[in-house]
Amino acid sequence: MGSYYIMIDKILSLSKDIKAKSAFEKERFILKDISNLMNSKLFIGIAGLRGIGKTVLLLQLSKKYENSIYISLDSIDEKFSLFDTIKELNTKYSIDYFFLDEIHNYINWQKELKTIYDFLNVKIVFTSSVALEIIESKYDLSRRVAVIKMQPFSFSEYIYFKYNKIMKSLHFENLFDIDTKEYNKYVAYFDEYMSGFSVPASLQSPSTIIIPNILEKIIERDLVALKKLDLQDIQNIRLTLKYIANNRVDVVGFSNISKNIGIHINKVKQYLELLEKTFVLQIIYPYSKNVMKEPKILFNVPFRSVLYNNINKDDLVGAIREEFFVFHLNNLELNIKYLKNDRGEKMPDYIITYKNRKIIFEIGGPGKTKKQLNACKEIPCCEKYLLQQPFENELGAHPLILLGFVKTGEKK
User: Fold this and answer.
1) Domain with 79 in it: what CATH number?
2) Which of 175, 171, 170 is nearest to 383 (CA)?
3) Distance CA 190, CA 365 (A)
4) How many CB atoms lie within 10 A of CB 6?
5) Same domain, 127 and 268
6) Do residues 6 and 49 both lie within one domain?
């Protein structure tokens, strides 16, 4: 058992050192929501993209609790169980709060968490760079774990972290009834936000290789952890991402990717589902049940900014606007569909259901008008809004960036 206690000493030492060295002035907005759950019996799972500050958040939380420890799962020897390690630290070192980083790297983590929850009186907060399929777990963690999705910076968070300016949060309920003058001045920051600075790691170390490095780690580590992939799969995934980044949003679907990359459509679906689970892509399906179920494939911010190389500038701008829109509405946990009919006619871009309201959106630049919105007569009794970026006070339009200031956590 000598090696076991060497490992325990190592874990204690590493936690002490990293907590002593960590000093963070600002906190992500989501930290308040997580702190509110700390008094519940539930464990807390935080899932999100690499590089968005999950480790920093764990350290900030751990410094708020005296009897706590930060553990990177890489430091636990596979020969010893997570349950035994936490039991030892709890009973012999009086540690009650455990902050576990990148739990998906630990084999059988779901089984271990269930056992810990059922037999030990401790609190666990853990992170993962892979979507946590808690609800589907055969160990029924849904009653034991509260899962929180941590996103890159919202637009308002970016303004706060980069320029130290806190804007009043908006509510989706009355978003399109407010005077926007106070927010219009931030339209100028849209391009820099979407060029890679939505990821906190890019603010800490502004380098052109930050986002590509995050993407490579996702492909080579996280995707492999989710699914057994060979070298050909990895190459196909890279080709798929390049194809999506360099084509218009409205022509990228399962069939076109399959045809242009030369891989079976079932493989395409598998790759895209994995990339969505690792927070690289967003898959949006059409609203109508009468059309072919080809989805829109959008990047999560900020990946398109580092992957495109030959797409037409106008098509790139359109894709980036849509990705900003979808990203911020997903933060609100709203059900988003894109509009498409079976006659190939021009339709507005998206429809959402908010409470009992159906809301249609058209997204474009300052030259865009409400003409396309008004042409949509297939969905009666709905609200219709034109969102512009950049915004030039077009009559009847609203700034796209308003969505970046909406308070997260508003349920549909």
Assistant:
1) 3.40.50.300
2) 175
3) 13
4) 11
5) no
6) yes
Any residues with CB less than 8 A from the CB of 294 and at least 6 apart, and which? 253, 254, 255, 286
Determine contact, residues 354/365, Cβ cutoff 8 Å: no
Q: How far apart are CA 351 and CA 336, in angstroms?
A: 6
Same domain, 190 and 293: yes
Q: What's the DSSP call for residue 135?
A: T
Least confident of 43-57, 229-243, 311-325: 311-325
Mean pLDDT of 258-275: 95
User: What distances in angstroms separate CA 114 from CA 108, 123, 197, 286, one per listed residue?
Assistant: 10, 12, 37, 38
Are 328 and 406 in contact by the 8 Å Cβ rule? The answer is yes
Q: What is the pLDDT of residue 412?
A: 42
Same domain, 259 and 373: yes
**Cα(114)–Cα(145) distance, integer angstroms:** 9
**Based on the structure, what is the number of domains in the chain?**
2
Q: Are residues 117 and 208 in the same domain?
A: no
pLDDT: which is higher, 284 or 229: 284
Please check whether residues 107 and 201 belong to one and the same domain: no
Cis peptide before 302 (omega within 30 of 0): yes
Question: 188 lies in which domain range?
Answer: 155-405
Q: Provide the whole-model pTM.
A: 0.90
pLDDT score of 402: 95
